[in-house]
Design goal:
The chain has three helices and four strands; from the N terminus they run βαββααβ. It has helices at about 20-40, 70-75, 80-90, and strands spanning about 5-15, 45-50, 55-65, 95-105.
C-alpha cells in the first residue's frame, strides 16, 4: 500500500481548566472553527467531549484528511491563522493545554 494514498487522522486534544472554559471552547469549535478546518481541506470532523476520565476537562477534535498532501496544504496555508486564533482565545496562561496527534488511517 502506498503511504501517500492513506488518509490522515489529525486529532487536537484540548485540556481545559474548568467546565465554563470547556463549554466556551466547544462553542468556539461549533461556531466556525471546525467549519474552517473542513473548508481548509479536511474531509470530515468530530468533536468528542471526553467523559472518562472526568477530570481534567478534555475535548478531542478529530479531523480526517483524504491524503497527506491535503493535510500538508492545510498545515501550510490554513492552520497558522486558525491556531493563532485559538491561542488568543484559549492561551496556556488561562490553563489550557493542546496536544496534536497525526496518524495514517489504514
Amino acid at each position: 500500500m502506498l503511504t501517500a494514498m492513506l488518509a490522515i487522522a489529525y486529532t487536537v486534544i484540548a485540556t481545559l481548566p474548568d467546565l465554563a472554559t470547556r463549554d466556551e471552547y466547544v462553542a468556539w469549535l461549533e461556531n466556525g472553527h471546525v467549519d474552517a478546518v473542513i473548508k481548509g481541506g479536511a474531509h470530515s470532523a468530530a468533536i468528542v467531549i471526553v467523559d472518562e476520565p472526568a477530570t481534567p476537562f478534555q475535548v478531542e477534535t478529530r479531523y480526517t484528511f483524504q491524503t497527506r498532501d491535503a493535510f500538508d496544504q492545510y498545515v501550510a496555508r490554513v492552520a497558522p491563522a486558525l491556531r493563532a486564533d485559538g491561542l488568543e482565545r484559549f492561551p496556556p496562561g488561562k490553563g489550557v493545554g493542546m496536544v496534536r496527534r497525526i496518524g495514517r488511517i489504514l
